[in-house]
């Protein structure tokens, strides 16, 4: 059974994940998402987007039971896999702000935005988009908390902005170091690969690699989840792919 939501006052938990789900229509949760949160404590946020001129209370009176039923069906599926969760339904005019506020309120260290693409038959694979100015320690600790006890495979990927040899070598050192740290924290080395590319424009290089994976991991230096979720990379991913996205929050 889900626990009632309350503001989190305990020390941060790196395996706590916010899972926003649109409940204004039928809900279908991919198997990819189940695999990603199997070792997590999930905050299941059911949101119903409403027009600016509408009242949240009015929509809740009219559609509240329907929204709760749809969200509970998702919760039941999580429970069937032994996944601990909390749940809440919100009627909102601002999806981005809602996600940002909920992640802060419940101290969720990452956010999973479900995609719609069917999972592959192979082991679940994620591509981790790495930037040197990201919170690399947080990326390592969060990925290990989420995936050490899973079969998920990860590619650490960096798309360089130029062909500077010194920068290329230092980035390779960074990627090797991240892979080593993940192994030390419990992710088998045969489930981790790394790669960097200097051939082409950064965003296009990312988009060319994403189709080979089931989900995308983004870790940014900007502490605003809203900026990360609706930034250039995320917007293009949403427009051109149907991949699930995992955004790792910066340490704040």
TrEMBL record:
Lineage: superkingdom: Archaea
Name this polypeptide is given: UspA domain-containing protein
Originating organism: Halanaeroarchaeum sulfurireducens
Gene: uspA17
């Amino acid at each position: 059974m889900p626990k009632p939501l309350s503001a989190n006052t305990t020390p941060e938990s790196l395996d706590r994940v916010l899972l926003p789900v649109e409940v204004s229509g039928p809900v279908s949760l991919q198997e990819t998402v189940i695999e990603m949160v199997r070792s997590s404590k999930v905050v299941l946020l059911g949101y119903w987007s409403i027009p600016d001129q509408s009242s949240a209370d009015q929509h809740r009176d009219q559609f509240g039971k329907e929204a709760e039923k749809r969200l509970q069906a998702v919760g039941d599926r999580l429970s069937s896999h032994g996944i601990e969760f909390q749940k809440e339904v919100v009627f909102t005019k601002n999806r981005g702000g809602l996600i940002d506020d909920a992640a802060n309120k419940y101290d969720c260290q990452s956010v999973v935005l479900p995609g719609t693409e069917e999972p592959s038959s192979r082991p679940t694979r994620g591509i981790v988009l790495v930037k040197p100015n990201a919170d690399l320690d947080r990326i390592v600790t969060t990925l290990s908390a989420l995936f050490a006890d899973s079969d998920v495979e990860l590619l650490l990927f960096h798309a360089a902005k130029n062909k500077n040899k010194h920068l290329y070598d230092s980035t390779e050192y960074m990627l090797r170091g991240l892979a080593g740290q993940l192994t030390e924290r419990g992710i088998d080395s045969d489930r981790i690969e790394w790669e960097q590319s200097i051939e082409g424009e950064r965003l296009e290089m990312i988009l060319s690699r994403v189709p080979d994976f089931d989900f995308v991991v983004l870790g940014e230096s900007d502490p605003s989840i809203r900026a990360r979720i609706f930034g250039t990379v995320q917007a293009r991913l949403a427009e051109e792919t149907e991949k699930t996205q995992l955004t790792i929050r910066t340490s704040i």
